[in-house]
């Protein structure tokens, strides 16, 4: 088990694969949840006031899934 004291790692043991997978999965679901939230807010709330802002939000939401896939598969070659 890795323990940190003041930002310094006490052990030289590398982090386990399950911990890395869990962290990548959390990032993936957070990004995909953000994507879904942006789409729903853009076309149900924001478009009533500003169509341009809704389109910009949709473009940002369109970029998030590939980024989430990259993060979910980062470091799989180890």
Architecture blueprint of SSEs:
Blueprint (H helix, E strand, L loop, with lengths): L3 E2 L2 E2 L7 H28 L6 H22 L6
Antiparallel strand pairs: 1-2
Helix pairs in contact: 1-2
What do these coordinates show?
The mean pLDDT is 84. The chain has a two-stranded antiparallel ribbon with strand order 1-2. The protein is elongated, with a radius of gyration of 18 Å. It has one domain (17-72). It has helices spanning 17-44, 51-72; strands at 4-5, 8-9. It is mainly α and 78 residues long.
Fill in the keyword field for this structure.
78 residues; mainly alpha; two-stranded antiparallel ribbon; 2 helices; 64% helix
Provide the domain count: 1
> What coarse outline follows from CA principal-axis ratios?
elongated
Level of helix content? 55-70%
Low-confidence region ranges: none
Please compute the radius of gyration using only Cα atoms: 18 Å
The major pleated sheet works out as:
2 strands, antiparallel
Q: How confident is the prediction overall: mean pLDDT? A: 84
Tell me the span between the first and last alpha carbons: 20 Å
- How many H/I helical runs? 2
Task: Strand order, main sheet: write it out.
Answer: 1-2
Content of β-strand:
5-15%
State the order of secondary-structure elements, H for helix, E for strand.
Answer: EEHH
Could you tell me the number of beta strands? 2
Structural class: mainly alpha
